[in-house]
Amino acid sequence: MTSLVPNVDRVVCSPSLRARQTAEVFGLEPELDDRWLEMDFGDFDGVPMADVPRDMWAEWTSNPDFRPPGGESLQEMGRRVFAACDDLLEAARTTNIAVVSHATPIKAAMAWALGVDVTITWRSQIDQASVTKILIRDRGPALHAFNIVPAR
User: Fold this and answer.
1) Domain containing residue 120
2) How far is CA 67 from CA 34, 42, 103, 144, in A?
């Protein structure tokens, strides 16, 4: 994976155990940031999508303000990820920052880079251990690569 993300100067990481374990590949002490945690699915955490009641799933994927019981809405997750991206923007102009996170926040960061609404996350797919690259240019962020899976 390090060949896909060369010369990393800084690692920002979700505090979840699996993210911290993945971050070890960079050999740097990660900065833990709760904003990079996976979306809080509440009562549906760990439940296969096929087992979510059909009417609830339809509401969930069509209404970005829908909050599953005990969880957070797509908009809430998007706001925290967009804020985390904004906070890294200036530093990323001069340093290579690797962020180790989860599927939904990575897709939200992609939306941030593209300047589109967070609802695009429902229309994108991301694989485990994939790499997404966002470049910071004079005019702002640009999506450089999405869902690149390292050779195994």
Assistant:
1) 10-40+73-148
2) 19, 9, 18, 31
